[in-house]
Design goal:
- By secondary structure, the chain is α/β, with parallel strands linked by helices.
- About 55% of the residues lie in helices and about 10% in strands.
- Helix 9 runs parallel beside helix 13.
- It is elongated, with a radius of gyration of 28 Å.
Length: about 450
């Protein structure tokens, strides 16, 4: 039937053993495909397996419903037909998982889309032909039945995020990246911790007081994980962006976990963050000024930000911990950006009327772009380097970044990270005043430079 050959009904035989064998083959193909598309190190994902099982059972229910409406005594034939007709799709998916990277580039994306579409049509034709042979249906009725089942499948998949049987073993990946890190120099933990007080006082001493009558913006960057240099680069580049474009010169601070900056900058830890927030609050007009807090690193499914520097026993950061530190410092107006996997899980603990929260991913999704070689994570590049380089409004910039990330993920065939936003009404009104001032300052900048002869 897959080759388009005609088969007599008397040659179409079905048994329970065959149905079980085809079901097992379906599962094995799914496990193998998941193993191909997920990079090592891998871990078997029970959640993904449960979703695959749900889809599999749903297909069987659709087959059962089809058989009930046609020829109930042919139920076994119908179920087997649905299972056996899936194999061309698995072949194409496996091909796309192993095809050279250049064929998945934007200029060649039509190749994969054409092949995948052809496989879908191929599987559709197999189903129609098999229903004709196995259930004795006329061609038109078999075609209509397949359309019904295809519509049911699409409706189901529209509400289910399909995950493979495998997922990345993030703990093993962190350990591997730490081992492979270029910064292999042994850290003197005692000297590092002893130096923190002086480094914190030095950075706090550079902070300027608020300006009466001006809605000042203060910036704090937090690079949480020393195992990859991208977080350090991202925080430092974002501080530079805010100093030059958002008027935070003298009102910005960074905490960085990385061997390259351990003698220059305070490390990123919960206690250091609490200290710096208190120092900033002491210089702010907490009724008038706004804090922009940016945290970047690795996140977990339990919605914790991993805080790592060599073998130091640093505590992870949760949303309630972050909210407590801000409350204890007395900082009222907040813009909080969290770039990490599963960062959407922070929103519930941070959201209020006076806070804008932006996250790189939904609570059940991963974000992308973490590597020693990268200058930015995908979210950081889209939001900070691209969107905020042109737009003052944080919410508009976020929407632009979200669209850009969605396009990148679609091109690279990744599960969408779904960045999230939560904005209180009061912080929106407060940010409008800040945006008005910054827009006017940017408009006046060329005239000011001309007057100074720059």
């Amino acid at each position: 039937m897959a080759r388009g050959r005609r088969i007599a009904v008397v040659r179409f035989r079905v048994s329970l053993d065959q149905s079980v064998a085809f079901g097992a083959l379906h599962v094995l193909l799914g496990v193998g495909y998941g193993w191909l598309v997920v990079d090592a190190p891998r871990a078997f994902d029970l959640g993904g397996a449960a979703l695959q099982a749900l889809i599999f059972v749903s297909l069987l229910v659709l087959a059962w419903a089809a058989a009930r409406e046609t020829q109930p005594h042919r139920l076994g034939s119908t179920v087997l037909v649905f299972l056996s007709a899936l194999w061309p799709i698995w072949i194409v998916l496996a091909f796309q998982a192993t095809v050279p990277a250049w064929q998945r580039d934007a200029d060649f994306s039509w190749v994969g889309e054409t092949v995948q579409g052809g496989a879908m049509v191929w599987g559709f034709c197999i189903l129609v032909r098999a229903l004709e042979v196995g259930c004795g249906l006329a061609g038109v009725r078999a075609f209509a039945l397949v359309l019904f089942c295809a519509g049911g499948s699409l409706a189901m998949l529209n509400h289910i995020e399909v995950e493979p049987y495998w997922t990345t073993d993030w703990y093993a990946l962190w350990e591997q990246r730490q081992t492979e890190s270029a910064d292999t120099e042994e850290i003197d933990a005692e000297a590092l911790m002893f130096a923190q007080h002086e480094l914190l006082l030095g950075m706090a001493g550079e902070l300027e007081l608020e300006r009466p009558g001006v809605a000042d913006l203060y910036f704090v960057g937090f690079a949480a994980d020393a195992s990859q240099a991208v977080f350090r680069r991202e925080v430092l580049a974002t501080r530079k962006l805010f100093d030059t474009r958002f008027d935070t010169v003298g009102r910005s601070a960074v905490l960085v976990n990385h061997a390259a900056t351990r003698e220059e900058l305070p490390i990123a830890s919960g206690s250091n963050l609490g200290f710096m927030l208190h120092e900033i609050a002491a210089r702010m007009n907490t009724d008038e000024d706004i804090l922009f807090l940016f945290l970047t690193g690795h996140g977990s499914k339990t919605h914790e930000l991993s805080v790592k520097f060599d073998d130091l026993p640093l505590n992870t950061i949760e949303s309630l911990t972050l909210d407590r530190l801000l409350d204890e410092a007395g900082i009222r107006w907040r813009v909080i950006v969290i770039s990490a996997c599963y960062a959407g899980g922070f929103i519930d603990g941070l959201a209020n009327d006076e806070t804008l929260v932006l996250t790189a991913a939904a609570s059940d999704r991963r974000s992308f772009g973490c590597s020693n070689e990268a200058e930015w994570t995908w979210f950081g590049k889209a939001f900070f380097e691209e969107a905020l380089a042109e737009e003052i409004d944080f919410e508009i910039a976020f929407e632009r970044a979200r669209s850009r990330i969605d396009a990148w993920e679609q091109e690279d065939e990744k599960t969408h990270s779904l960045p999230q936003i939560s904005a209180g009404a009061s912080i929106r009104a407060k940010l409008e005043f800040l945006e008005l001032r910054l827009t006017q300052a940017l408009a006046d900048e060329p005239s000011r430079r001309a007057a100074l002869g720059d």
